[in-house]
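job 3f2a | input accepted
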Amino acid sequence: MQLRKMMVMLAALSTMSLALTACGDDTTPGVESCKADTDCSTGYCNTAASVCMTTCDSGSDCPDTEKNCAVLAGSTSPQKVCQCQTNQLCNKDSSTSLVCGTVSKICEEPGSTTGCTKDTDCATGNTCNISTGVCSPAATTCTGEGQATCAYGSFCSASTCTAVPAPSCDNFNPSKGGKTPVWSASSSTGPVIYSITKLSWGADVVSPAFCTGDTLRAEVKAYAKTAGTFPPQKSALQGLFYVTVNGNQQDGVTLIRPSGYSASADGKSATFTMNFCPGSISTISLGLYFTGGNEICSQLSK
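job 3f2a | predicted structure (302 res):
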């Protein structure tokens, strides 16, 4: 009798297991690496991401986190596979530990070789190639200027990727009345100002004069993470601020003449001349920043 009951229970459990399998598992299976379909237990290799994928005929064959059953974009195979759609669907409850791989189309840990969408998805010192979703060590050498191949928050200086300097002036010292710095290279996304240099200090070289007395003309260079951030014309530029030593700030765009602004074709970098009226002083402390970008100081003398 006991043996008969045990056999009945095992049969029932087996039936339940088959039913659950037919409906699709609710958890993401372990990721298998591959180079060809024969490397995968599922028989399907996403060669662009080097990961195995679960084949399917409909969404019911897929886990809840990867419910999109479709032919993989760019694949020559007609076989449908389970694919993720959003980071939110990759996570249960309020978790944010997984991302939807931009190339792998499976749910995975941020910063894996196929899952990044921004630099902050990658480990410290790595950058994200958003077109491939691949994290790789940030460059330490570079050519040109601006961000070049450097990580966000660094700029190319003498062929070396150099972190933009932290603000050390009273303009951004709250204990002396300055503005509190909030920018972080690991979490911020705004434009980065990396260079402020004096062009001239004296009678304005442009007519009409910007100031009634001396005019300080300073060249400013900045870059952005996203194409199109810097508009073609100065009239559309927004979010630039000039901070004085006592923490007061004003719209920095008003300090730029239309003729003194130039942006790159892709809108990822800009060079512009800012005009200041220093009065009778011979040394000035400039504090500048873009919304969401780094705070930077420059001490200029006549």
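job 3f2a | The longest strand covers residues 192-202.
job 3f2a | closed
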